[in-house]
Write a structure and sequence with these properties.
213 residues; mainly alpha; 2 domains; 10 helices; 2% strand
Length: 213
């Protein structure tokens, strides 16, 4: 077992024991390097640690925890693999959905810009990993982005709303294709969820705009 494998196995064990900061410390040699590439199993460990860190801290500590996780995620080089990309997208969602509760008004645009930059890269990778627009795994990523658009609706941009809407519409137009019945049902659920999330976000944003006039 290589030193890297030992480090990730140690981090996995520490994470499962609830020792999240120690788990992160075990990976410092790798997570502190920019543009680091991780395997699927390594991304599973990082995903678990991020989720545990964000759910285990108090509200007072949550913002700092979000910052740690976001910085870590920004340093990761995307891998064009379906399982990997799903894990990474979930981690981005976990960090930014919680940051939306903690960020001060004057910080929100900056955090949204950071989120948008990450999802721009995720979007490019998703189109290469799942070339057909109706894949449930591909649509699941846009469900996460639509949820984040709603969480950050005061600063989210029209381009992001449009991206989610377009992906849902084009997937519906593409139809069942080579998907089996269960996959197509899952895709349809995601399509409807995206439409509702974006519709609700735009409606709430209109109400906010009306109140500020």
């Amino acid at each position: 077992m290589s030193e890297r494998e030992k480090a990730f196995e140690s981090a996995r064990t520490l994470g499962e024991a609830g020792k999240i900061d120690e788990a992160l410390e075990a990976l410092t040699n790798y997570t502190s390097e920019p543009e680091t590439e991780y395997t699927v199993s390594e991304m599973e460990v990082i995903n678990t640690i991020i989720t545990e860190k964000l759910t285990s801290v108090s509200f007072e500590e949550k913002k700092d925890a979000c910052n740690v996780c976001i910085t870590l995620l920004e340093g990761i080089k995307l891998v064009k693999d379906g399982a990997w990309l799903s894990l990474y997208s979930e981690s981005v969602y976990e960090a930014f959905s919680r940051m939306s509760i903690c960020a001060r008004d004057e910080e929100r645009q900056l955090f949204w810009n950071r989120l948008k930059e990450l999802f721009y890269e995720i979007n490019l990778a998703a189109k290469k990993v799942w070339r057909d627009k109706n894949y449930p795994e591909r649509l699941a990523i846009y469900v996460l982005y639509a949820k984040l658009c709603k969480s950050w609706l005061d600063v989210a941009d029209e381009e992001s709303y449009k991206l989610c809407e377009t992906e849902a519409k084009e997937a519906k137009f593409f139809g069942k294709g080579t998907l089996d019945d269960d996959q197509w049902r899952e895709s349809n659920r995601s399509i409807e969820q995206i439409k509702k999330l974006i519709g609700d976000a735009l409606h709430e944003r209109e109400l906010i705009d009306d109140e500020s006039d």
